[in-house]
């Protein structure tokens, strides 16, 4: 749950655009989000909605062509527009990353111990030997058995799940304040996914690390996240506590997203009807006017095309939809009859 | 690792034996009768018979081959038909020249090629890349011999910076030795440097956009560490492969370069032997070239397993 203390990571009006030959692609548009100490926030949305770009932009990891505006404050320090040397001191030490594909994200020609130790050598000025010893402890911390042997293994000698644990060990080596996990379980077997999520939650509990987990896997955020942020075409359309989002999603897109995820209860599952969204995600090169979701929203009406929906506060979060009433209630695309909503 | 080494060593030995057979049979399949060539004016059947008996040419081929291998194993490559000197002593004077020339050329080519390739990849789209690409194009398209002649013309004849030809053994005077050999080595290395540069550049561009480089950056490593420890180490796998494949070209390039710079090396010895149909020398030269190939390839494979742990551990080259 969101705590009252000042957020560790404060994202305000973050926008990222890429100039291309055919025009400027607005990949992220006005994202604002807080991450409190020890909090886990899940950012969900379809592929291509700008989740990963948001994640990469936090520590300035996007290619030089990206134009980033807005504000990202890590413990009060502004990261947007910060000098490269300042960002290097932050990366890996205060904000660390876990990526989707653990095979390709690890260097194939260096031992895992060396790759974990490298962070410690750079940021904590440890000797190579001390770093190796610490790497062994970290491997144990993330649940890798016989760390003394594994530390000298190369990535190809480890399973996918173990490799992802190595990535996590590498990320938490310097005790970062914020851990950004970009689709950490997507490339893994279902049986291994739960273990990885468990490790992330343990680390939060033990080290107090804040975690921003980016995924399209709703069951992952349901298991792990305190708060959820739903992204659509570069914008946040809804934020709120996990309980509220899963129980009473306010934005039609959130409702559609939830309706697509299977429910473990066979009786309930049988009576559910997923909301099918027509068309693919529109191009970020030329996003729809007004509400960006209107081209696929079953409840869209004329105002949606002309007016950008304001964010209606719901508890600690918000929803950006014309149909959400000030008390946070609104029609549900899963049950509502579009003709009634429009009248 | 030990098993991998053993397998590769065994393969190398087998290849060497096969090349010995090919050389042996090949030389005997050449048109012309060595006895006839040796006999000179006196072509009586008795004289020819005596010559054949003297050189063992009257024995059946398998016996000749066995004797040949036996003698070779003792370092005896026979006697030059033309000069009468033992081939082995000819080799001991010629080989060091060529080995030094080739090794120096490889070192120069590797240093220039890898350096320029990394620079071109890191400074993509900037003047440094255009310059490196332009130089590589020149290095690839301009033939050695012409470049060598130009170098002699401008750097030796006109300015006297380097000697135009000749050789001083390294043990006699190391400085003078280097002075004589550096220009030929640079000329010989240009083509290889260009190839290495292009391979390094493209391999580096791949590595620099890879996920593990993104990880390295996300760890807060300095650009130098990201480039050398992460991107370059992975790129070297490709580079070593290409260098290994190009070494054959280097050996033939050495023949031409030696001829131009008047270096008393292996190349000059080969050309002379071929023109004079000096069978024992040709035999030794071809066999040694084959052996050099095999040994070099063995070391390239070794180098692979040093660079790429995936080969080292499974004991199985991809």
Automatic annotation (TrEMBL), chain B:
Residue spans crossing the bilayer: 101-122, 134-157, 177-197, 236-261, 281-304
The ABC transmembrane type-1 domain, residue ranges: 95-300
The keyword Cell membrane is assigned to this record: yes
Family matches, as InterPro entries: BPD_transp_1_N (IPR045621), MetI-like (IPR000515), MetI-like_sf (IPR035906)
A GO term for molecular function: dipeptide transmembrane transporter activity
Bilayer topology: Multi-pass membrane protein
Compartments in which it is found: Cell membrane
Keywords tagged on the record: Cell membrane, Membrane, Transmembrane, Transmembrane helix, Transport
Major subcellular location class: membrane
GO CC entries: plasma membrane
Protein family (similarity comment): Belongs to the binding-protein-dependent transport system permease family.
PANTHER family per UniProt: DIPEPTIDE TRANSPORT SYSTEM PERMEASE PROTEIN DPPB-RELATED (PTHR43163)
Protein name: Glutathione transport system permease protein Gs iC
Species this protein is from: Micromonospora noduli
């Amino acid at each position: 749950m969101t705590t009252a203390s000042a957020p560790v990571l404060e994202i305000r009006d973050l926008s990222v655009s890429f100039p291309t030959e055919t025009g400027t692609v607005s990949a992220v548009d006005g994202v604002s989000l807080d991450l409190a100490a020890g909090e886990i926030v899940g950012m969900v949305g379809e592929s291509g909605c700008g989740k990963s770009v948001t994640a990469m932009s936090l520590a300035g990891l996007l290619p030089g062509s990206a134009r980033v505006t807005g504000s990202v404050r890590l413990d009060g320090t502004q990261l947007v527009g910060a000098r490269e040397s300042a960002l290097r001191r932050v990366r890996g030490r205060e904000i660390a990353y876990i990526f989707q594909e653990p095979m390709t994200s690890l260097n194939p020609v260096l031992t895992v111990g060396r790759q974990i130790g490298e962070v410690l050598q750079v940021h904590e000025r440890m000797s190579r030997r001390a770093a190796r010893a610490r790497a062994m402890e970290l491997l144990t911390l993330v649940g890798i058995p016989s760390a003394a042997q594994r530390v000298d293994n190369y990535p190809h000698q480890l399973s996918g799940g173990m490799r992802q644990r190595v990535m996590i060990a590498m990320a938490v080596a310097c005790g970062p304040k914020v851990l950004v996990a970009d689709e950490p379980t997507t490339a893994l077997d279902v049986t291994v996914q739960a273990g990885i999520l468990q490790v992330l939650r343990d680390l939060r509990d033990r080290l107090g690390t804040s975690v921003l987990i980016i995924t399209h896997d709703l069951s992952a955020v349901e298991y792990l996240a305190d708060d959820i942020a739903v992204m659509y075409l570069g914008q946040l359309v809804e934020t709120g506590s996990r309980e509220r989002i899963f129980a009473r999603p306010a934005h039609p897109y959130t409702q559609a997203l939830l309706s697509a995820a299977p429910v473990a209860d066979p009786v309930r599952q049988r009576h559910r009807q997923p909301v099918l969204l027509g068309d693919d995600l529109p191009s970020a090169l030329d996003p729809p006017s007004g509400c960006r979701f209107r081209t696929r929203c079953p409840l869209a009406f004329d105002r949606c095309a002309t007016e950008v929906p304001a964010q209606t506060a719901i508890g600690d979060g918000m929803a950006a939809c014309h149909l959400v009433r000030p008390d946070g209630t609104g029609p549900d695309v899963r049950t509502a009859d579009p003709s009634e909503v429009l009248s | 690792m030990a098993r991998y080494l053993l397998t590769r060593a065994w393969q190398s030995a087998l290849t060497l034996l096969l090349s010995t057979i090919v050389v042996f049979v090949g030389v005997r399949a050449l048109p012309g009768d060595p006895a006839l060539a040796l006999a000179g004016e006196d072509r009586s059947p008795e004289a020819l018979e005596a010559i054949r008996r003297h050189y063992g040419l009257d024995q059946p081929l398998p016996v000749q081959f066995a004797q040949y291998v036996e003698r070779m194993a003792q370092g005896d490559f026979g006697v030059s038909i033309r000069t009468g000197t033992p081939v082995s002593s000819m080799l001991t004077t010629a080989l060091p020249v060529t080995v030094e020339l080739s090794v120096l050329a490889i070192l120069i080519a590797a240093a220039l090629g890898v350096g320029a390739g990394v620079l071109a990849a890191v400074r993509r789209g900037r003047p440094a890349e255009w310059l490196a690409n332009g130089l590589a194009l020149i290095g690839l398209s301009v033939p050695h011999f012409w470049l060598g002649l130009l170098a002699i013309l401008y750097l030796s004849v006109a300015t006297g910076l380097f000697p135009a030809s000749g050789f001083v053994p390294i043990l006699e005077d190391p400085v003078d030795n280097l002075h004589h050999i550096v220009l030929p080595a640079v000329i010989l290395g240009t083509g290889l440097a260009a190839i290495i540069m292009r391979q390094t550049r493209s391999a580096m561009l791949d590595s620099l956009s890879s996920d593990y480089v993104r990880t390295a950056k996300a760890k807060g490593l300095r650009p130098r560490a990201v480039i050398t420890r992460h991107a370059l180490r992975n790129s070297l796998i490709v580079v070593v492969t290409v260098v290994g494949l190009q070494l054959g070209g280097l050996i033939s390039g050495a023949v031409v370069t030696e001829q131009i710079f008047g270096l008393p090396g292996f190349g000059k010895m080969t050309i002379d032997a071929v023109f004079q149909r000096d069978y024992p020398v040709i035999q030794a030269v071809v066999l040694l070239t084959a052996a050099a190939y095999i040994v070099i390839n063995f070391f390239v494979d070794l180098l692979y397993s040093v660079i790429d742990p995936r080969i080292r551990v499974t004991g199985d080259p991809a």
